[in-house]
Amino acid sequence: MTDSPKNNPKELPALPSSFSLVSTLGVVAMISGLLVVLVYEYTKPIIAENQRLATERAIFKVLPQASSRLTFKVSQESIKLVDDKTKGELIYAGYDRHDELVGVALNAAGQGYQDIVKLLYGYVPATGCITGYDVLKSTETPGFGTKITTDAAFLANFDCLEATVDQEQNGLINVIKTVRHGTKKNPWEIDAISGSTITSNAVGRMFNQSGQKLHPLIAGHLSLLQSAKSLKRDSHGQPN
Ligand SMILES: Cc1cc2nc3c(=O)[nH]c(=O)nc-3n(C[C@H](O)[C@H](O)[C@H](O)COP(=O)(O)O)c2cc1C
Q: Among 78, 90, 110, 152, which residue has the least CB neighbours within 10 Å?
C-alpha cells in the first residue's frame, strides 16, 4: 500500500513564500492599474468629443432659428468670447444668417427625483422668454420624471416662460416657480406634470437659479453678444 501525502508529510507540495505571494499580487495590481489608466486615457477624448457633439446638437435644438453660434465664458461679472476648448462656465449665443442674435443657450442643473438633472435651455433676451430645453443628463424614472421631455402640456409652458430681467439688472422681475398641475396663473409659472411634481419642481428651481444669475449678466453684455458674430466675420476678412 502506498503512503498518502497525509501519511507522508514530506511529499506535500511546498507552499509559496509570503514574499512571492505579495510580489505576484503587486504585479497583478500594477497591471490592473496600468490598464485602468490606459482605458481612461484612450476614452477621454472620445467622451469629450461625444459631449461636444451632444452640446452642439442641443444648442441648435433650443435655438432653432440659429444657423451659427459662438461660445462665451462667464466669470463673476463678465462675459468673454472664447474658443470651444475653453473650460469653465460657458454660454452659447446663436445667430441667424444675417449675424443677428436670435437667442442664447444656457446650462441649468438641479436635483430631481433620482439624481441631478442637467438641461440646456434657450433664452431670448429680446423677449425675456425661455423658449425650450433639451435634457443633457437625467436618470429620472421612465413614465414619471422622463415626461418632462414628452408631456405636451408641460412643454407648452415654454412657448414663452417669462424670465425678464428687472430694471436694475439685479435679477428677474418675477421668481420662476413650478405650481401644482392646473393652477398656473402667470407667464413666469410652470404648470407641473400631475404625478411627476418632483421633477417638474426641479425644472422650475433650476431655471430660476440660472435665470437670476445669468439673465442680468446677459442683459449687461447684450451689445457684445449682438455684435460678436459680425465683428468676428469682419476680423477674418469674410464677406457679410
Ligand atoms: C417608483 C417611483 C418612481 C418615481 N419617479 C418619479 C420621478 O422620476 N419624478 C417625479 O416627479 N416623481 C416620481 N415619482 C412620484 C413621486 O414620488 C411623487 O408621488 C410625485 O412626484 C408627486 O406628484 P403629485 O403631487 O402630482 O402626485 C415616482 C414614484 C414612484 C413610486
A: 152
Which residue of 117, 139, 141 sits with most ligand 1 atoms within 8 Å of its CB, as the best mutation to test the pocket?
Answer: 141
C-alpha cell at 55: 452640446
The closest-lying atom of ligand 1 relative to the alpha carbon of residue 192 is 26
d(CA 205, CA 199): 10
Spell out the domain ranges in the chain: 45-235
Query: H helices then E strands: how many in the chain?
Result: 4, 9
- Model confidence over 148-185: pLDDT tens digits? 999 999 999 999 999 999 999 999 999 999 999 999 99
pTM above 0.90, yes or no: no
DSSP string, 23-67: HHHHHHHHHHHHHHHHHHHHHHHHHHHHHHHHHHHHHHHHSTT-S
